[in-house]
Design goal:
The complex is a heterotrimer of chains A (about 270), B (about 300) and C (about 325). Chain A is about 40% helix and about 25% strand. Chain A is of the alpha/beta class and about 270 residues long. In chain A, helix 6 crosses helix 7 (about 165-175). A six-stranded mixed β-sheet of chain A has the order 6-7-8-3-9-10, with helices on both faces. In chain A, strands 2-1-4-5 form a four-stranded antiparallel β-sheet. In chain A, about 45% of the residues are buried. Chain A has a single domain, classed as P-loop containing nucleotide triphosphate hydrolases (Rossmann fold, 3-Layer(aba) Sandwich), CATH 3.40.50.300. The termini of chain A are far apart. Chain C has helices at about 1-20, 30-55, 60-80, 85-100, 105-110, 110-130, 135, 150-175, 175-185, 190-195, 200-225, 235-245, 255-270, 270-275, 275-295, 315, and strands at about 140-145, 225-230. In chain C, helix 3 packs parallel to helix 6 (about 110-130) and helix 3 (about 60-80) crosses helix 11. Classes of the chains: A alpha/beta (about 270), B mainly alpha (about 300), C mainly alpha (about 325).
Amino acid sequence: MAEQNQENRIVLKIEGLTKRFGGLVAVNELNINVEQGNICALIGPNGSGKTTVLNLITGIYPINGGKIEFLGEPIQGLPPHSVCWRGIARTFQNIRILGSQTVFENALLGKGYGKGGAGIFHTVLNTPRYRKDMAESTDEVNEILEFAGLTELRRERACNLPYGKQRILEIARALVTKPKLLLLDEPAAGLNSQEIYTLMELISKINERGISILLIEHRMEFIGKLADWVFVLNHGSKIAEGTFDVIKENPDVIQAYLGRGGRKLA
Amino acid sequence: MTVAILFQLILNGLAMGIIYALPALGISLIWNASGLFNFAQGDLLTLGGYIMLTVFGKLNIPFIPAFMITVAAMGLLGYALSQIYFYPMLENKVNPQIILIGTVAFSVFIRNLVLVIWGTTPQTYTNPFGSQVMQIGELYLMPHVIWIVAIVTVLLSLLQYFLRSTMVGIAMRAVAQRQTASWLMGIRNDRMIALTFLLSTSIAAVSGVLISPILPLTPSMGGMIAVKAMAAVLIGGLGSFSGALIGGVAVGIAETIFAAIVDPAYRDIFIFGILVLFLLFRPGGIFKAQVSEKV
Amino acid sequence: MKKVKTLLHKYILLVIGFILLILPLFTSQYEFYVVERGVQNAIQVLGLLILIGYSGMMSLGSAALLATGSYTYGILLVKLGISPWLGALLAIIITTLIGTLLAFPSFRLAGPFLVVTTVGFGEIVRILLLNLESLTGGAYGLEGYENLFADSRLVYAFMVVTLLLVAVGTQRISNSKLGLALKSIRQDEVAAEIMGVDVRRAKMVSFALSAMLAGLSGVFLANLTGYMSPDSFTSAESTTYLLMVVMGGMNSVVGAIISSIVITALPEFLRFLSSSRLLVYSLVLLIYLRVHWVKSSRPSCAGVAKKLKINIGNNKSGRGGGNG
C-alpha cells in the first residue's frame, strides 16, 4: 500500500533513457523520478546532455531506448504538442518567443491549437460559442499575466521587452498551457541579480500552485535555494542524485565539475 | 530497342543532364555559402545565352573571346548582385522567406528584361561546334554533344580544384560552414559570398552558351530549365557538389529515355514524380548533407 | 480600444465594398472588366495572405489551384451539364481537397524545398491541362458553359459581397487562436509545437483555406471570361499573386485587397506599363524588399534571436500598403 502511494506521487518517471546522435551517446541509460510538487534540478557540466533530456521528454527528438512515463502513462513517441496537452510545458535556453506578436498573443499561444475549443467554422462565423471560448481564454491568459507581473506590458510587442521580462513571458506562456510539470532550461541565464531574485520568487509561487518543476541551471546558489532534489549528469549518464547539501559534498560531482583535485561546490 | 539506341539516348540525355547540372550546381554553391535558394538561376542562364547571341551572333566576335566576354559579364553581374542586393539582406538577417521572394522577383525581372530587349521570337546563332552529324559505329551524334561533355568536364575539374586547393576556395568553404568563425579569422564574408555569386552566375553563363545548339533561345527557356535544375538539386542533395552533378545527369537521362519510350508530353510529370518520391523517402537527396538544428 | 479598431476595420471594408459596388456606374465596359478581375484576384490573394502572409509557407502553385477551380467548374458544366451552382460548389470542394494534399509535403519540408514542390505542382497541372484534350480542350481551351447569373452585373455584385464576407472571415481568423497558431508556425515552428499547437493540423487548415479561396476565385474567373485556356494560368500569374500579397503588407486584409485591385488595374490605366507589366512590377518588388526590410531591422529588436526577426516593420504596412 505504501509502495502504491509512492508510485502515485511520481509525476515523471524516466527509465533507461538512451539517445544517440550518430556514434555519440548523448544520453545513456538515464533514470530520473520527479515527485509530485517537487522542484528538481538537473545539473552537469556543459555538453553533459541536460537539454537533450528535455528535448527527449517533450518529444522533439525520438528516443533510442528506455521509457518515459508521465502520470503513469508512457509518453515516448508522442508528438510535442500531445506531450504539451498531457501537461508538460517547457521554456528554452535561448528564449523562443514570437518577437513580432504582443505579450498577450505570446501568452495566448499557450492555449495551443487543435485540442478542442471552437473550431474554424465558429471562428469565421463568430458564433456565441467562439466568443465564449475566446473570452474564457482571454480571462485565463490575463490571470496568468497578472500572476507573472506582466499585465502592464500585455499590449507591448515581445521583441521590445527587456531580456528579463522576455524570460518571464516565456514562463507565463508555459503556464497558460496548464502544465502539471514545468521544464525550465537555464531560466536564470543572462539575468542580473535583481531579475534572478524576481525569477526565484516566481518559481516558488508556481511551485506553490502544485506544479512540479524540473529545471536545468548552472548557478549553484539558485539551486541551493530552490531545489528539493538534484540530479547530476555527466557525459549523458547520471552520476549522482540527492538533496543539494548532499550532492555538493559528493566527490564524483566535484570531480566532474572541477576536474581531479577540485574544491567544493558553492 | 537496340543497345545502340539506348546508348545514344543515354548520351543525349547526358548532354541535357549536364545543362541541368550546371544551374543545379550554381544553386547548390549559393545555398552552401549563404543559405539562400536562388530561384533566378535559370533566368541567369537565359541572360547568358542572349548576351552570347549579341556578342557572338550579332557582333561577330570569334567564339572563344565571345564566350569569355559573356562569362566575364555575367560574373560581374553576380558579384554586383550579391554586394548590392543579397548580402545586405543576409547581413540584416532578413527572414529567409523574404529573400526567397527576392530571388523569385529577380527571376521574373530578368525574364522580362530579356523579353523587352530581345523579343519573344525564338532565336539562334550558328552552331559553333558544327552541325555535321557524326557516325561512330551505330551511333549518330551531333558534335556539340561531345563538346558539351568535354567542356563541362574540364570546367568542373577546374572548379573542384579551385574550391579544394586554393586559398580563396578554402575561404569560401569556410564561410559556408561557419560565418561568424570565419569572420573572426579575418575572412570577409561579404566578398566570399559575392565570389560565390560570381562563380554561380559564370556557371549560368557557360550553360546558357552551351545550350544554344540544343534549344533555340527564348525568354522563358531558363524558367523551364530551372524547374528541372531545382528538381535535380533536390534529388541529388542540396549543398552537395557531386549531388548537383549526379542529380542533373540523372534527370537528363531519365527524361530523355522516358520521352523516347513512353510519352514526351508527360516527361516533366515523370521527373516531378521522382522528385516527390525522393522528398518523401529521402528528403536529403542522394548525397544527404547533414544539417542539424540546435533546439 | 480593440473594439474601436475592429469597428474601424469593418468600416473600411464596408467603404471598399460600397466603392466597388457603385464603380460600374462610372466605368466603361472594358474598365468594368478590369475591376471585376481585380475583385476576383483579391479573393485569391486573401487565400495567399493566410498561406504566405500568416503561416509563412511560400507557394508558387497558386495559379494552378486557380486553374483547378476554373477548369473543374468548366468541365463539370460542359461535359456533365450540371447546374452552375452545383458546379461551383463541387469545383470549390475539389480544389480544396487537392490543395489540402499539398499540405502533406509541408509536414517535412520547409523553405525552398516546399516552394519547389509547389512549382512542380504548377507544372503538373499545366501539362495536364494541355494534354488531356478530351477534357480540357488542350491549348484551344474550354468554353460554352453557363454563368452563375445571366446578368454579368449580378455576378459582379455577388462577387463583391463574397469578397467582403471572405475578408471579414480572414480578419477573424487573423485575430483567433488559429491565426495565432499560423503566425507562430511562420516564426518558430518548434516553439509552436511545444506550446501545444498541432502544427500539422494548422498547416492543413492553412492550405485548405487558401485552396478553397483559389477555387472560389477560379469559379468567378470562369464566369468573368466565359472562356478558359492554359495561358491564363502560367507561373507568371503565380508570381503576380505573390507580388500582390507581398505589396499588401503580408499581414493585412485591407492591404491585400487594395494591393490586388491596384496591381490588376494599374497597367490598364498606365499604358506604358501594359507591354512590360511584369518587368516594372518585379523591379518595384525588388526595390520594396530591399528598402523595406534592410532599413527596418531596428536595433531595438536586434538582440532577439534571429529566428524572431521576421515581421519587423509590418505594423507600418499593416494599414494597407497597396502602393504598387
